[in-house]
Write a structure and sequence with these properties.
Order of helices and strands: EEEEEEEEEEEEEEE
Radius of gyration: 16 Å
Strand content: over 45%
Oligomer: single chain
Distance between the termini: 38 Å
Shape: globular
C-alpha cells in the first residue's frame, strides 16, 4: 500500500490479479489498473509501492514490478507513464529519500538508484546465488551486511537503511549512513 494526495490509498494485488487499486480518502474504490503480463501497463507480481514526489511535476506512483524486474511510474490516476528502472533482481520494496531511492531486491541485494533510475550503489550484494530468494537459509549461514532475500526496507531521518530479509528466522539489518570524507 501507499498513501497518495488527498488521502488516496493505492493497493497492489501482486500475488493474485496483478492489479493496482485506488481508493479515495473514505475508502471507496475509484479505479483499478494493470493485469498480468510483460508489456506497458501490465505486471508480473506488482509488489512494493511508493509515492514519488521527485521532479517538478505532480507526484507519481512508483511500482515494483517484481517478476518483470523493473520499477515503473504511473500517475496518481493510475495511468501508465513508463519504466523507471530495469534489470533489477526481483524488486520488492522501494523507499525514497531526496533524489535517491533504495530498492529491496529479493535476489540478495539492495540497489540505490539516482533520480533518473540509474544504479548509484549496490549494498549487501550476496555472492552466493544459492542464497538468493531462499527462505530456508539457516541463521548460522547468514553473514552480517550480506542479504539473502531483501523484501522490505526504509530510510530513517538520518539516512540509515533498515532492511528486512525474507527468511524462516527473520532478520532486520540496519545499515548506517556514512559521510563522504
Amino acid at each position: 500500500m501507499a498513501a497518495g494526495p488527498q488521502g488516496a490509498l493505492f493497493v497492489a494485488c501482486g500475488y493474485g490479479s496483478n492489479l493496482l487499486h485506488k481508493f479515495d480518502a473514505d475508502g471507496k474504490w475509484v479505479k483499478s489498473f494493470g493485469g498480468r503480463g510483460e508489456g506497458d501497463g501490465k505486471f508480473k507480481t506488482c509488489h512494493g509501492l511508493a509515492l514519488d514526489s521527485r521532479g517538478s511535476g505532480p507526484p507519481r506512483l512508483l511500482v515494483a514490478d517484481r517478476e518483470n524486474r523493473r520499477l515503473v511510474h504511473l500517475t496518481t490516476d493510475l495511468e501508465w507513464v513508463g519504466v523507471h528502472a530495469e534489470e533489477l533482481r526481483r524488486p520488492c520494496a522501494i523507499s525514497i529519500r531526496g533524489e535517491q531511492s533504495a530498492v529491496a531486491e529479493l535476489e540478495g541485494r539492495v540497489t540505490i538508484l539516482d533520480g533518473s533510475g540509474k544504479p548509484a550503489a549496490f549494498l549487501g550484494d550476496n555472492p552466493d546465488r544459492k542464497q538468493w530468494a531462499n527462505f530456508k537459509v539457516p541463521a548460522g549461514q547468514m553473514q552480517e551486511g550480506i542479504f539473502t532475500a531483501p523484501h522490505g526496507l526504509s530510510y530513517d531521518r538520518e539516512g540509515n537503511h533498515y532492511v528486512q530479509d525474507w527468511n524462516a528466522t527473520g532478520r532486520v539489518t540496519k545499515l548506517r549512513r556514512v559521510s563522504k570524507q
